[in-house]
Amino acid sequence: MIRHVLLAGLVLFGLLACGGTPPEPTPFPTLPPTNLPVPSVAPAASPTPRPVEVSMRVTAELVNCRFGPGTVYQLVSEIPQGKSLRAVGRNETDSWWYVKDPGNPNGLCWVSAEVVDEDDGVEDLPVLPPPFVTVTNVDLRVEPNRIVVNCSQFPQTVFFEALVTTNGPTLLTWKWEASTGAVSDVGTLIYEQAGTQAINEFYQVNAPNEYWVKLHVLTPNELTQQISFPVSCTP
User: Fold this and answer.
1) Domain check: are 115 and 139 in the same one?
2) What pTM value is reported for the model?
């Protein structure tokens, strides 16, 4: 054992005496820090699907384009025979097409499938619900529109008429209100199709004054129309 140790020492001494140097230890590689932010990659944007449009041509002599899918809706436009249309929707039974109105660049209306020839692809058109029907006009009248009587001739009766127009079938509800403080009960009127119907009412006035009366439409949409009438008397 002592001989082995001595021998190793002699070998080391000989290497040093010959000018040799022991090899330097290999340094460990430097690792990058692990707390650096990881760059995020934005997901690719999904392409927006283009709206489906189907070409069709008018085959009847003159086609009615309506507010809704049916003859009970208000007429919006008339389209002549041979005109090209672009449909963007359909009803549930594929009996009406929702088309771009050629007479109104920003307008849309419904045409019957019976009066047009369609290209392929109508099955890809979206099914659209019927439009919301509204009151489009109220024409309120009073008769007489001015009262001048002897002061002994009160009370006087005043008659009112409201011509109410809708753009489709609906249930109309309304009430009258007068400047005298009188308010009527809520009335109802059924519209089986687009059109105009009259509502009549009358009030009694008991003295000269500046009077007004209002018609409040409650449904299908809220709308108020007012009219005024003067009442005067002579002794």
Assistant:
1) no
2) 0.76
